[in-house]
Amino acid sequence: MRILNVADFNWMTGAEKDTARVSLFDICRKFSHAATRANHLVVEFSDRATARAAAPLRLKGLGQGWANRRFLQVVDELKPDLIMLHFADLITNHTLAEARRLSPGVVIADINIDPIWTEKNQKRLALRHGVADAVFVTTAEPMLGGFAGPGAFAAYLPNPVDPAIETGRMFETETPFDLLFPCGDEEPREIGGDVVAPSVAILNLKGAAPGLRLSTPGAGGEPEARGVAYFRALQSARMGWALSRRAGLPLYASDRMAHFFGWGLTVLLDRRAGFDRFYDGGEAVYYSGFEDLAASVRRLIADDAHARAIARRGWEKTWRLFHSDRVLTYVLAQLFDEGGAADFEWPCERWGA
Which tens digit of pLDDT belongs to each residue from 103-135? Predict the structure, then answer.
């Protein structure tokens, strides 16, 4: 199969300032790896970088027309069987319609990994209505079928792990920190019935678990960990706190949860998201509120062997279920198999409008 994978891919264009901001863990990258391992021909295209490269003052909005023309040139030469769009907002729906003319029978899938409740992402989810054949979302919410156009569908997408990226086995090593809590902003998060800012959550947890060695890149005044610094953060702690902005959405979590499991950390999860569908109490640690969380942290610090055993079992389950090769196989089955995908552990329904 010929696949055109469209995403930012962090191509350097001169727009970067203090850092290259290389996102090493993105799903777009993992799908390129998985598709290549499966002997598909993968071509990557960055709509944003192409637009910036052609635009005055590197302003990508001024180069949008150029990016769309270049995209169609790639489509014309490649004649892809599948186009995957990862927040490729600069590619217009008119351009996608022309892509269908240039490559008859091409299937177009929109990949959306962001929280579904934000206004920005609501607009992105609605953008491809009537244009894409499918939208895959990392929240198992059937109402997302309303974003699918006639004859199209929405479906759940689990966050994958990839053997070229998640390379750690932290249950086998000593670590300088007990718990890792990376964060990108101070937007409040749900912890049980409370909604608190990350900096407040950090202070509360330190007070409830005396002696806790806590790593908080991006929170509590610490610089955000990017690139290889994030790799180092993952291999610095025994446990990982997968704290999402909202805890009650079905099977939704930041992709950090997959990073933690894939690197062999003991993962702390809010029970309400429903991940006990995949991981039992011997493979992850669940909490219902802050006191529950703090008690679990204290127990795990006191019993490192138990923490390692949970981490190992969670790591094994993650690689069995959510290897990027397997997740891509699921996506392709949803798109190309009659009746869609079946026999996967997560929801396989195809939700329509």
Answer: 999 999 999 999 899 899 999 999 999 999 999
CB atoms near residue 303 (< 10 Å): 12
Q: Please give the Cα distance from 68 to 84 (Å, whole number).
A: 15
Which whole-number Å values give the CA distances from 79 to 57, 104, 131, 165, 191, in the listed order?
A: 33, 8, 18, 30, 48
What is the Cα–Cα distance from 166 to 123, expressed in whole angstroms? 31
Check: CB of residue 236 under 8 Å from CB of residue 175. yes
pTM equals: 0.94
Does residue 232 sit in helix, strand or coil?
helix
How many separate domains does the chain show? 2
What's the CATH code of the domain at 238?
3.40.50.2000
Distance CA 267, CA 285 (A): 6
Give me the domain span that covers residue 115.
2-160+323-336
Q: Are 116 and 249 in contact, with CB atoms under 8 Å apart?
A: yes
Query: Tokens at residue 53, please?
Result: 């490269």
199 part of a folded domain = yes
Encoded tokens for 303: 């019993």
* Whether 316 and 332 share a structural domain: no
Phi/psi at 44 (5° precision): -100, 140
List Cα–Cα distances, 98 to 70, 92, 106, 352, in angstroms. 13, 10, 11, 24
Q: Identify whether 348 is part of a domain.
A: no
Give the pLDDT confidence of 13-38 residue by residue, as tens digits. 555 556 666 778 999 999 999 999 99
Q: Are residues 133 and 56 in the same domain?
A: yes
Question: Which H or E run contains 109?
Answer: strand 107-112
Q: Are residues 247 and 209 both part of a single domain?
A: yes
